Amino acid sequence: MDTHLVVVLALLAAAAAAEAKMSADYYSKTCPRADRIIADVLAQKQISNPTTAAGVLRLFFHDCFVGGCDASVLVASTAAARSERDADVNLSLPGDAFDALARAKAALEVECPGVVSCADLLAVAARDLVTMTGGPYYPLRLGRKDGLSSSPSAPDAEIPHANLTVSRLVAVFAAKGFTVQDLVALSGAHTLGFSHCKEFAARIYGGGGGGADPTMNPALAKRLQEACRDYRRGPTIAAFNDVMTPGRFDNMYFVNLRRGLGLLATDQELYGDARTRPHVERYAANETAFFADFARAARRLSHHGVKNGANGEVRRRCDAYNGGPRG
Ligand code: HEM
Ligand SMILES: *[C@@H]1O[C@H](CO)[C@@H](O)[C@H](O)[C@H]1NC(C)=O
Ligand SMILES: *[C@@H]1O[C@H](CO)[C@@H](O)[C@H](O)[C@H]1NC(C)=O
Ligand SMILES: CC(=O)N[C@H]1CO[C@H](CO)[C@@H](O)[C@@H]1O
Q1: What is the SS3 assignment for 240?
Q2: Are 110 and 48 in contact (CB under 8 A)?
Q3: pLDDT at 32 over 70
Q4: Per the annotation, does 190 bind a ligand?
Q5: What is the predicted pLDDT for the residue at 236?
Q6: Which residues form a coiled coil (predicted)?
Q7: CA 289 / ligand 3 centre spacing (Å)
Q8: Is 247 within 8 Å of 129 (Cβ atoms)?
Q9: Neighbours of 66 (CB within 10 A)
Q10: How many CA atoms lie within 13 A of 258 on its CB side?
């Protein structure tokens, strides 16, 4: 066998071992009230700040897509080392989501210090907030360890941008083991939250000085052109991803795409492309089907690149490694 293959097999074995140690009742003896504590803190935060759900769900996606679900996205930069959080693509990762997770972690540390990993917390928090905003509940296996590295350049390479073609999106997801159906179902997360104007400016103002993207509903294009008028001077100006029911986890995102009401180019293209359109049609017509497929894909996403004891730890604070800053 060549060494490359041996390395690949060893990695696969390590990943399988990490997964084998996970279970639904992982904390039943060491922190039996963990679920309750997380849910309570998040419910309070979501009520006082309804943008929390979208922020946490997006953090979960970014965490798992960049080097596996290991809470590396939560590590703050220090003078010694910059981290994933500070990548350009992270400029807009929302502070409320970090705050919600810090509060939940603090409550967990009071009850059972050093037991519940930040990676598990993030996966559970994203699930809880999906459920709280009207989406499906899905059981999770626990036992993820927190990663020991976080790089500011990783997200740029791994996180899909809103200017990708469907072919690129399909390839990016396939490289991590996700199907076209998974891609469409997971994109349904854009039923929550918002995007900043620069992410869709080319669609509404035209790339080369032309008009709006013809696949966008003209009334929506006009509204967005007005809302985003000063976006270069006010880079925090944003619009809801789901223009109809922005705070509710439902299948409206897919219903919108049929009417040209998608916000990002990568949203609307899912309806324009023959590979993804049948899934959009199915989810628009049947919310139960969307919820079932989203739950299955989100659970799989939550297992992506999970770390075990040897290559991870349980952080005491989600924003710092236990051993201090690393290069
Ligand atoms: C299919 C490829 C995807 C692309 C190109 C994409 C792109 C984007 C972009 C550009 C934004 C706006 C960021 C900003 O302006 O602050 C955004 C927001 C968001 N994304 Fe995605 N995304 C994708 C997939 C996903 C997936 C799989 C999830 C979760 C499972 C997700 C969850 C979210 C959420 C919840 C928001 C709103 C965040 C907030 O309001 O704070 N996205 N996405
Ligand atoms: C796509 O968007 C990213 C981030 O905004 C940017 O860095 C990149 O140059 C864009 N690519 C193209 C082909 O426009
Ligand atoms: C909706 O999807 C669910 C889950 O796939 C399926 O069991 C149900 O029959 C579908 N309903 C309709 C009306 O097609
Ligand atoms: C939430 C968060 O940590 N955002 C950071 C993203 O990157 C910028 C630029 O480095 C930081 O200033 C933000 O604090």
Answers
A1: strand
A2: no
A3: yes
A4: yes
A5: 83
A6: none
A7: 6
A8: no
A9: 26
A10: 12
Two structure tokens written together for 130: 């999906």
Q: How far apart are CA 246 and CA 252, in angstroms?
A: 9
C-alpha pair distances (Å), 188 with each of 15, 54, 57, 78, 207: 28, 12, 11, 35, 26
For residue 264, give the nearest of 168, 162, 140, 165 by alpha carbon: 162
Res 86: pLDDT: 56
Q: Where are the domains of the chain?
A: 17-159+302-311, 166-299
CATH 1.10.420.10 fits 166-299, yes or no: yes
Q: Which ligand is nearest to the CA of 181?
A: 1
62 is catalytic: yes
CATH class (in words) of the domain with range 17-159+302-311: mainly alpha
Say how many Å lie between the CA of residue 263 and the centre of ligand 1: 11
pTM, two decimals, is 0.90
Q: Exactly one of 4, 62, 196, 304 is catalytic; which is it?
A: 62
**DSSP assignment letter at 299:** H
Looking at all shown ligands, the one closest to residue 299's CA atom is 1
